[in-house]
Amino acid sequence: MGTRHDKINLRLILVSGKTGEFLFSPNDSAADITEYVYNNWPEEWCDEQLPAVNILRLIYQGRFLHGNVTLGALKLQMGKTTVMHLVPREHLPEPNNQGQLKKDKSGENSCSNCCIIL
User: Fold this and answer.
1) Which tens digits make up the pLDDT trace of 38-78?
2) Domain span at residue 39?
3) Which are the contacts of 4, defined by CB distance < 8 A and separation ≥ 6?
4) CATH number, domain containing residue 30
5) Full-model pTM
């Protein structure tokens, strides 16, 4: 088992403002993380309503993360704490195409594919 230095510490914030911290490896994807948290719901969150099925999603820097995105791909620093929001949401809009993804990464303000939280 690795040490804290080769793991990424995620501080997850719920809509209610409650937080929890979890260690993940850079190879873990957003789907791996939400599945782990769903199956290992922290005791201190016991008064939070857990959805009937795992529809938890991660938001990082204002964007929903698609399930196959790994922490390593986000270039998160190992041994450091990264804050993400954890929210229940059924579906994410699919990226239009590869070109769209590249444009989003290069242009900070290109927000044609952003999600709006209602």
Assistant:
1) 999 999 999 998 989 999 999 999 999 999 999 999 999 99
2) 4-93
3) 23, 79
4) 3.10.20.90
5) 0.76
